[in-house]
Amino acid sequence: MAPKLLIVDDETKWLRVVSLYLQGRNYQVETALSGEEAIRKIAQAPPDVVIADISMPGMDGYELCSRLRRDATTRTIPFIFLTARDQDADKVKARKIGSDDYLTKPCPLERLEQSVETVMDRIEQAGKIPLDQIGLNGRIEDVDLLDMIQALELNQKTGALVLSHGERTGTLYFRDGVIVDAGIQSPKREEPLFILLGWKTGRFLFIPDAVPERMPITASMANLLFRDLHALEEHEQEVPKSGSVEDVPRPQELSAGLPGSVLARLEDVAKRLRARQGRPADSQVVQIRILIAGVRRSGKSELIQQLVRDLSSSRWAAVGIEESGPKYRTDVGRVRISHGIALHLIAVRAEKRFWNVWEECFRGAVGAIVLVNLSTEALGHLQAFMKARETLAPWLPVHALLQVPAPTATLPDLLGLSASNTSSGSLQDQAFRLNALDDVLQQWLAAH
Hints:
The structure is a single chain. By secondary structure, this protein is α/β, with parallel strands linked by helices. The protein has 15 helices and 17 strands. It has helices at 12-23, 35-44, 61-70, 88-96, 109-127, 145-154, 193-196, 221-236, 252-255, 257-277, 300-311, 355-362, 376-392, 410-415, 430-447, and strands spanning 4-8, 28-32, 49-52, 79-83, 101-104, 137-139, 159-165, 168-175, 178-185, 203-208, 286-294, 317-319, 332-338, 341-349, 365-372, 398-402, 422-424. A hairpin with a 2-residue loop joins strand 7 and strand 8.
């Protein structure tokens, strides 16, 4: 059965345009001219997604969303704001009361359709986690933490999700499916929350009804993730104390061959970035962000670790925050190319429900390497990722890697890339992975 959407807006012309477009995309569309009318229709037949304006006579969009979130029967219905209000304060308020997305009019209708697909995919994936797994303990390597978090949200669970990884422990507290507190403890120092979600080994335990005595800090996991990502990048900019970082000569084995060529290319990118930003050569660290995109278990973490080893000696490398060994595999890698240049490798889940994460990651990125899976479901997600890139960051260079024997010529047609920006091989092959990174850097330099 076609998904059912409820669109709430007092502008009748805009309501008709949006309705006709989504009906043409095989959605069932109901409309309401006010929040009160929407409440009545939802009570009669709950929709799969609600799309609402903020400014309406009587009950506005904020109150509509709040009422749905307070009612146990409607709390998990995805809610998208589509409004002419573009102030940061409005966007923050929308997130805090539990909206799933915030779009500003005039919004490309393709972007609205993508938002609907994203929130519906999130619900579908979270629903695949059996309820009897929630409340049990187990190994982190046997689950997907993001999917488990979304399942706790979907099923309105209250309690604490405790994660352990080596000597580190992290806890996410939920109240009725909403994250109300989060923290990570380490014997070395406090670490960003997004590192916790990158843990690939360890244990998890959900303790029902354990809630800290404080108000909700956010209703959006993406906000938490990227607040901490930005904090890490700011930390990278700190001027090192005397003697804490030496400008050590590059190891001879990295100065020659393909690794040396890639390192030289990274330095060229850094110089170009400094020049564009009008920054002197001895200013803050230049950060070069490369996205490693793929569906679940596509090899993102493995590729990051391999590239870190390819481009650094042990004293220059970091996977996560401190540790770089296989025991501490995470989805973030950093390489200090020189005293003033840092390469950030960030894994991104190329699945439709992570559209908001893509939107954040594209900002400031120099390029992306996409790991391709030829299964029908995975290709659908990867094509959505490429469509998002075309919409949000058409300038972003991309190189696609296919890890199974198959004609490379099929990739350009599937992902809309040129043949020179695709390749097939094994992630264990250094030339395979470094050539992909080098191609992304060359594309960026050619365009800038």
